[in-house]
Specification:
This protein is 16% helix and 37% strand. The protein has helices spanning 12-29, 51-54, 131-135, 180-183; strands at residues 4-5, 44-48, 75-77, 84-92, 97-106, 113-120, 128-129, 140-149, 154-161, 167-179. The longest helix has 18 residues, at 12-29.
Length: 189
């Protein structure tokens, strides 16, 4: 079984299991706050992950651009002579949210990034090849088994590229389970 499945079909059963596991942990950790699904009124809930969720919610720069705070995935640039590995995401997640990573996308017409290496919660996961995405001519790939990043945990992802001086729009697909205050935050311009 490959860790990255290239398909337009999301592995819904595995995603549901990951969400259920995270919700159960959050119910224990955040008691007495109730689980309220997509529109929490007082407890905690869920939404589609946005880039600022990965970088501690209310502070920090967005992945791919060290000087800007925005809610979408910025173009990332390679800085050295390829092929080589570089940091892409290196942050500590917010104490009020769990990140569920379900897949990756690359919207560039001429992709240069060929692998990513996620390290959530201090755990090294296998290197994930991206070149099969490009061979199949799809812009996204789903993990066969999603993984969760705990609150207040280190989350690192390295990227490997072929050529230097390349800019691409690449990002992570997933969900955020978080307290209501985190989900409603509009801290960024």
């Amino acid at each position: 079984m490959t860790i990255l499945t290239v398909s337009d079909l999301r592995p819904d059963a595995e995603v549901r299991k990951a969400i259920d596991t995270v919700v159960a942990k959050a119910q224990t950790e955040w008691t007495p706050l109730p689980w309220e699904g997509e529109y929490p009124l007082s407890g905690f809930g869920i939404r589609q992950m946005i880039s600022r969720d990965v970088t501690n919610g209310s502070t920090g720069a967005r992945p791919g651009n060290a000087t800007t705070t925005a809610t979408y995935w910025y173009d990332i640039s390679s800085t050295g002579a390829g092929p080589t590995w570089e940091d892409w995401i290196n942050t500590t997640t917010n104490r009020d949210s769990y990140i569920i990573v379900e897949g990756v996308f690359n919207l560039s017409p001429s992709p240069n990034y060929v692998e990513i290496w996620p390290n959530p919660n201090g755990q090294n996961l296998p290197v994930m090849p991206l070149d099969t995405l490009y061979a199949m001519d799809v812009a996204r790939g789903w993990l066969s088994k999603p993984f969760a990043v705990q609150p207040n945990a280190v989350f690192e992802v390295e990227k490997k590229y072929i050529n230097a001086s390349t800019t691409e729009r690449i990002g992570i697909l997933g969900h955020t389970v978080a307290k209501r205050s985190f989900l409603l935050s509009k801290s960024f311009p």
